[in-house]
């Protein structure tokens, strides 16, 4: 069924009220309205209680009520005279109750509120007929929510008495059909929320006074505005999470600044059969209403290009099926500041000088199939952030960043190699490389997972980076961080996870990185702690997934230990008998070991949690740390004593023979 809209939207559910006397009785297990509250109460909250019935006498003693909230009770009935003493009530929330049970009686009670401006009937199991009955005498309403009910179809009888309504929330119902003229009488309607329903299409959209329309999370296959030159007040249109096949056919004249088309099936159809040019591509829409079927034939690109998109500043077309963008498509969006084209099928993108996007600051082209990116000379002078992650780019034209103020570039997960490459035999550099030198405005650069074979020593010269991610480029820094010397003093955040750093900390010199605040060295198979880190003022350090047997205690007692606040240590084979540094970290109390529960140590080839070592392990470690000289003395003393005793026995046994032998050897003649 087609959905026809004729006549002159929904944003956050909020209407502010000036409150002088407020009473909060939320969650008190009240079965009735308390009778002992101040008589001049103007705002009363009774949310999350167990009230089943609002009787005629429930509010008699509170004649000054302006705001009443009864959310999440067990309300089944509001007696007809319940609000007769509350003629000044302006804001009423009855959400998440069971008012569908006695809706006719409740409708009579609501009809006695001439000043009511805001009403919330969400989550009450109401059908469209019940809603129509309850709204019949509420012509003063400006804000209405009937979300999370059982509404399936809408026609003009549901809202025909609500001429003052400005915002309407119909999300999370079961709406599949909206008849023509449903909103015709809502001349002041500005915000309409139809999200999370089952609407198949919107055609002849003609709500010229609407400022915000949220039709996300439906099953829309197309969106067609009414023909004509009427000026629409529409500023925000959310059609995300639908099944749109075509770019929406928007009003020719509008004030649209935000268009959300995320997660649809939008594509352009240059390669359709029998289409010799894009302007030849037409589509026929069959719109059925009752016994009438209308066939509308449209030239797609002609209709898109005829819409005035000069005020559009935010366009999200991510998660669609875009293979390309038509020539001139972006050129009409002269105010565009944010463009999201990520998660599409783009293989090439050329932005020419004739379609300059002078206001564009944020461009997301990640998760496409881009192998060719061509930007004209200076079409993006205001660009600040460019996301090219997860494409097939081997390089980007050198002039891409030459005339911009770009500060953030994400090139992660592209098959890149960095310039300057090693010169060939004729002295020329390999032209297929990414030149990131001399980009004076660039501060943040992500090169994770690019398969970098090596980081050249002058790869970032002239580019004052403060944040650099080289993660998952195994072997790129096999010689250590020396290639980063040119930017060492500027770097504040550095990720070197899984970059093949030398295993010995003695071969890794970070002494020049004096302004570094965050460092990731995880998954590098380090066998010793880099001593050069002890003099840095790091606040965050990640050492997970290495082969460290311990951390040097003296390093934690220096500048590193005084500044460190966040530390990751798990997946290292720490020695259970050399955990003095672990105890020192406990004493510091300023270092948060985020993965403390996963830190283990090795004792006799058994992994044990370092947080609570068993007494037997501690005892074993004590024996290992006993003075080895004393141990050797104890072991050798018995042998020495045995040897002395043996020598003494031998001497005593052969004493006389030995003396005679000595005398015979040294006998001399007498002087007489």
TrEMBL record:
The keyword Cell membrane does not apply. One of its GO terms (cellular component) is extracellular space. The keyword Transmembrane helix applies. Gene3D superfamilies: Ribonuclease Inhibitor. InterPro entries: Leu-rich_rpt (IPR001611), Leu-rich_rpt_typical-subtyp (IPR003591), LRR_dom_sf (IPR032675), SLRP (IPR050333). Signal peptide: none annotated. The chain crosses the membrane at residues 629-654. Keywords: Glycoprotein, Leucine-rich repeat, Membrane, Repeat, Signal, Transmembrane, Transmembrane helix. Coiled coil: none annotated. This is Negative regulator of reactive oxygen species.
